[in-house]
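dude i think i finally got it to work??
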Amino acid sequence: MRLLFILSVLLAFSCTKNPQKPSFSALTIEPIIEDSFLNVRALELNGGHVVAVSSVGDVYRYDLKSEKLSKSRFSSDTLNVRSIALVNDSVFTLSIGSPAFLHKNTKLVYSETHPDVFYNSMDFWNDKEGIAMGDPTEGCLSILITRDGGQNWLKTPCDELPKAIQGEAAFAASDTNISLVGDKVWIASGGIASRVLFSADKGRSWEIFYTPIVQGTPTTGIYSIDFYDEHNGYAIGGDYTQPKLNMKTKIKTTDGGRSWIVVEQVDGPGYRSCVQYVSGSQAKALVAVGFEGIDYSSDGGLHWRHLSDEGFYTLRFLNDHTAIAAGKGRIVKLIFE
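look at this
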């Protein structure tokens, strides 16, 4: 009895010293930019600044402290831009369709013309090495890599990449087809086949992982992927033409993407275009957004709580309770409570 009492006291003290972080149960949405013509699927955060690019190539810069907003255009052409990356003071933008244009600030650093060109996402490991991905053009997913800070980009030959399955492509829905941790990169495909392309050495060698997410038609598959660390990852998607359907729309891994499990929840979210881990949550907290609303999970994505019907395409976390989200007509601050 004495031992049980001591253990009970120690357990109570331990719980007091390390209280479990409460789950988000409320959400406040504060507008940053509202414009009915605005359409944003790509944004990034740099310190206290938000940088977003619209579908017509306008770059928006917003200072969260001073609340100062500026807008510029990197090209005289109206381009459909779905990818953005920030490296120090440089803004990289990548358009979809053919010809595809990749700009570093106002300088064109890469272009590609091909009937099947369609780039989806872009990111950087560090200030020198970056990667962009797109649909197949010659039998494999399109992979661009830079090793010199984005001055020059080289397309990886198909004989160095896993072959694409007929009808396998990707979605330029939220600029989150790529996830980077250390030297590693995971790239999500979708469509007739939805798989994960993986490199452990910054794109010098590649392997492919199969997933159980819904797939088999051009509008199904993974739309967004995020890794918290080199082991824990989550992918979300579905079918944007049937957004209410939620069977096999969410999958998770705890072994670096080599195996995935389907997350099923009767009242969980269906189609979503973006999923992101919450900063500092030890891979437990995630937020997903899509044009049907905002959802939150506190248990690694096994169960979800619907927080809002407000629709957005993409989001990035500023800290453990604040994110910036963007979509059709606006960019906002999301404050979770």
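The helical segments are 2-17.
im so relieved honestly
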